[in-house]
Amino acid sequence: MAEVDTRPEALVAEAAEEARFLSETQSQELALAKTNTEVAAPVEKKVKKIIRRKKRPARPQVDPSTFSSEPPPQTGNIFNIWYNKWSGGDREDKYLSQTHAKGRCNVADDSGYTRADNVPGSYFCLFFARGICPKGQDCEYLHRLPTIHDIFQPNVDVFGRDKFSDYRDDMGGVGSFGRQNRTIYVGRIHVTDDIEEIVARHFAEWGQVERIRCLNTRGVAFITYSNEANAQFAKEAMAHQSLDHNEILNVRWATADPNPMAQKREARRIEEQAAEAIRRALPAEFIAEIEGKDPEARKRRKIESSYGLEGYEAPDEVHFARGKNAVNPRGREGYELEHEQRLMLEAAGYGGEEQRQQREPEKDGIFSSSTLATLQAARVAVASKPKAAASSGPLVAYDSDSD
């Protein structure tokens, strides 16, 4: 029989060894469970968080308490109460235009969202362009610069004002809907050596400028914008303003440039604009085939236009021709059986001349021969009214209404 050590030191050592064994076993089980949990747990996808900056509200350009609505300056002879403006005069008084504008728009600080941003097709604020809008974010019109996506009807401008059929004598006012004018005339510029740099710096604030032409000795500049809406906005924003000196600008619409090069450039721009509109309307595959960007379409066209002849490729005027004499079989569809149908109609007329007339239509008219024959048979001869005998006497010239 084995002896058991019952001393206190032996019991304590045995308990410590058992505790150490249990702790190691539990740690291994926890590690294994943790590993299984980590393997079984689904991997969380990393979501890229997009932080968008909130649009700031438009600020009032002037204090509403100090803003007062004044009647427009007299530029005509008759005041129209319906349109709240003067009419009857086509030239602005040169003395009234010698006063500075009451404010100036600062696009970087004054732009922001208004109530009009929630309404599609809203117009731009005229007072915002002039720098005197007191409403801020409560305004019913847009407080920002026009873009190429802001498209309005050709008979109104970006401020919602109706255009006219022709320009005024002084080329002021809203403008005409008969011509797309993107060029404004600026006069009374202080003559300096760096006039071109000054004009470009001030007028580039209102949109993308396409071309600037300055007459240094006369203090005159012509600014052409890429978008007509920006030209309309710049005309109102820079009216009666100053550049780097204390001058008062005279801003008007520019007349048509008589330079042949300018006319060709404008015609080319209109053609490019029309081509871009057509390119957007047609399918992309069709555009690629026309422009030769699709190699497969080019190969198909080369095979189809060869017509079985090795090394031959028909030109466009032959390949796309239409008619009974067309080389392309698709171009002869609907034309190749005209003469055969006519021969069949003539050969089928065994019943006499009347049946042949009923079957064969007229070549030069819209009615058949049978219809014309019926109309001729139903024609009724109307007897003409006999003329009254010429009367003689002192009252021969006073005829009655019945006669």
Automatic annotation (TrEMBL):
It comes from the Eukaryota. It is found in: Nucleus. PANTHER family: PRE-MRNA-SPLICING FACTOR CWC2, PRE-MRNA-SPLICING FACTOR RBM22. Residues 120-146 form the C3H1-type domain. Residues 182-256 form the RRM domain. It comes from Cercophora scortea. A zinc finger (C3H1-type) spans 120-146. This is Pre-mRNA-splicing factor CWC2. Residues 50-74, 348-370, 384-403 are annotated as: Disordered. Pfam families: RRM_1, Torus.
